Amino acid sequence: MKSNDGFTLLESLVSLTIISSLLLLLLQSLNISIFQLKKTDTTVLAASLSRSLLSEIGVIHPLQRGEISGRIGNIANWSATISKRPLFFDDRSPEQAGVMAYDVALKITIQNSQYKFYTVKNTINGNLR
Fold first, then answer.
1. CA distance linking residue 23 with residue 99, whole number of Å
2. Which tens digits make up the pLDDT trace of 21-57?
3. E strand segments, the chain
4. In the predicted model, what is the mean pLDDT of residues 6-15?
5. Contact yes or no for 120/102 (Cβ under 8 A)
6. What is the DSSP string of 5-42?
7. Is the pLDDT of residue 124 over 60?
8. Which residue, 57, 48, 47, is CA-closest to 128?
9. Are 83 and 65 in contact, with CB atoms under 8 Å apart?
10. Distance CA 69, CA 3 (A)
């Protein structure tokens, strides 16, 4: 005589396997989301630091050809390469016109990830613009 009062052992094992598989997929996607969130936070931090550092170049750090570098607390290392940008005027050199332009390449390293930012700085008669 067969009883219809409950589930068989096989049905219970199959349902447990399906639930376990779904939970595993959910945990994996959660892990990926957390990793991406940390990566995004680091990228936003690098962008914020670069904005501050690029505004300091020419004010705190001299605007001249070469390389400068530093460290921001325990957060990041940075280095900036400054080079003259060629400018062309009618018949005058940029120095005669009083206008100079510099390319600034900034590298920020945070937690073994490197971020690069670029900008152009201009001076008119020696004043930063």
1. 64
2. 999 999 999 999 999 999 999 999 999 999 999 999 9
3. 66-72, 76-84, 99-110, 113-124, 127-128
4. 88
5. yes
6. SS--HHHHHHHHHHHHHHHHHHHHHHHHHHHHHHHHHH
7. yes
8. 57
9. yes
10. 79
- Long-range interactions of 48-51: CB distance < 8 A, separation 24+: 49/75, 49/76, 49/78, 49/108, 49/110, 50/106, 50/108, 50/115, 50/117
Structure tokens at 9: 């052992």
| Two tokens, residue 19 | 């639930």
- Number of residues that make up the chain: 129
d(CA 32, CA 112): 19
Q: What span, in angstroms and rounded, lies between the C-alpha atoms of 88 and 55?
A: 26
The radius of gyration of the chain from alpha carbons, rounded to an integer in Å, stands at 29
Q: How far apart are CA 115 and CA 34, in angstroms?
A: 21
Tell me the whole-structure pTM to 2 decimals. 0.72
Separation of alpha carbons 60 and 79, rounded Å: 14
